[in-house]
Amino acid sequence: MALSLDLLLDTMRHGSIDYCEFLRIPSMSAGVYRLPAGAVDTQSPHTEDELYYIVSGRASITVGANEHEVRTGSIVLVEANVPHRFHSITEELVILVLFAPAEYSNRG
Fold first, then answer.
1. 95 found inside a domain
2. Residue among 65, 48, 22 at smallest CA distance from 103
3. Which of 17, 50, 60, 93 has the most crowded Cβ, counting Cβ within 10 A?
C-alpha cells in the first residue's frame, strides 16, 4: 500500500473533512487529522493507545494534566482513555494518527 498525503489532504479540504482514516487492520488503524488555525478540537478520549506525528503546523496539546507545545516533527503518545485535546492552534495542523489496536476496537 502506498498513498499520497497531498492527495488525501486535497480530498479532505474539498469535502470539509477533518479526519480521514486510510488504514484499518485489527492490530492498528491510521488516519490524517487536519485542524485549521483557530479550530476547536472536540475529540473525546479513545479506548486505544494513540500516537500523533505532527506533519505540519503549530499548536499546544493537553494530555491528562500535562501540556505540550507541538510543531512539525513532534510526536505525542496518548494512552487509552486519557483525556486530550489540541488547542491554541496558530498554524494549520496536519497530523498522522496511529491507533493500536485499531480505533474503537476496545469499545464495549
1. yes
2. 48
3. 93
* Local structure of 106: helix, strand or coil: coil
Say which CATH number the domain at 18 has: 2.60.120.10
Grid coordinates given for 41: 478540537
Distances (CA, A) of 63 to 4, 6, 12, 50: 29, 28, 26, 11
Task: Encode pLDDT of 50-86 as tens digits.
Answer: 999 999 999 999 999 999 999 999 999 999 999 999 9
Q: Domain total for the chain?
A: 1
Helix (H) or strand (E) holding 12, with range, is helix 5-14
pTM of the entire predicted model: 0.92
Q: Which domain holds residue 95?
A: 5-100
C-alpha angle with apex 32: 30 to 37, nearest 5 degrees?
150
